[in-house]
Amino acid sequence: MPGRVLVGEGVLIKNCRKKQKKRQFFLFNDVLVYGNIVVKNKKYTQQRIIPLEEVKLEDIKDDEVMHNGWLIKTPTKSFAVYAATPTEKTEWMQHIQRCVDDLIKRTGKQPTGEHAAVWVPDGEATKCMHCNKSEFGLLNRRHHCRSCGAVICGGCSKHKFLIPTQSSKPVRVCDTCYGNLSKGRTGINSEVVDESQTENASNAEETEAVKIDESESDFRERNVDAEYKNALTSESSDSEDESKDSGLEAIEAERFINEKRTIL
User: Fold this and answer.
1) Coil/strand/helix, residue 190
2) pTM score above 0.70
3) 20 to 30 Å CA-CA from 201: which of 44, 56, 154, 259?
4) Distances (CA, A) of 82 to 48, 50, 72, 85, 177
5) How many whole angstroms from its chain centre is CA 216?
6) Long-range contacts: 239-244, Cβ < 8 Å, 24+?
7) CA angle 153, 157, 161 (to 5 degrees)
8) What are the strands of the beta sheet with 190-192, ordered from one edge?
9) Residue 10's domain is classified under what CATH number?
């Protein structure tokens, strides 16, 4: 795309559903891209593209385990990322926010007001966060409410509700959120969850702390150059251990990669 400039890039820890994983992030002046690292500094797959007008940043306070984190919130998906040092966290957040502000000022685009909930990682909930009774195991799977992000059991999430910013079809929500979302609504586009058609059971994995070298996560300011012709590829790889992304998102990612190649 004409006028697209690579501002900087680096490695961050992304909080995925089951555990934390290293992801390579590329900040452009209009989009934020991240992907799986296949070959360090050479090949990345499963790229995801986030238009910057949809991005909202939110600070995360340090705890005993994780430090230097913040939330990246969008209408379709929100998640936590972590840098190696406080300085790198500050640099990342400042650069992203400046690009968001410049894009809105330059294009007149309106920032998005509604953002998806951040999912609570599986390892942080040993029992349902709704009833606080149902313990998770091989026969009692974890589910996530797409409205509030809580980890819930099947009995506390019997309904689906249409959240247009996340999916074209009704998605699973907890009973509390279903009641709140459906208040005063007529002709509600919702349905009862059929547990036999949901995803296969999987063993819960404890959240693992992942370390990154400061040299990896250091925000590197860049201008687009020829070395990025082969940096982003659309080859298939093992998918992330988190919620399935839509086919449309994958198509858009491939389109972006092709566009990027043409402007180098």
Assistant:
1) strand
2) no
3) 44
4) 18, 18, 11, 9, 29
5) 20
6) 239/46, 240/16, 240/21, 240/36, 240/46, 241/16, 241/17, 241/18, 241/19, 241/21, 241/205, 242/16, 242/17, 242/18, 243/17, 243/77, 243/119, 243/144
7) 150
8) 171-173, 159-161, 190-192
9) 2.30.29.30
pLDDT tens sequence across 19-32:
888 999 999 999 99
CB 56 within 8 A of CB 255: no
Q: Which domain holds residue 148?
A: 122-184
The dihedrals phi and psi of 2, each to the nearest 5 degrees, come to -55, 135
Domain total in the chain: 2
Q: What is d(CA 83, CA 11) in angstroms, rounded to the nearest whole number?
A: 8
pLDDT digits over 1-49, tens only? 668 899 999 999 998 877 888 999 999 999 999 987 655 655 566 678 9
Q: Assess contact for 250 and 62: CB atoms under 8 A.
A: no
Q: What is the DSSP letter of 88?
A: H
Question: What's the full length of the chain, in residues?
Answer: 264
Q: Are residues 145 and 66 in the same domain?
A: no
| Residue found under tokens 């500094």 | 41
Distance CA 82, CA 22 (A): 10
Same domain? 67 vs 28: yes
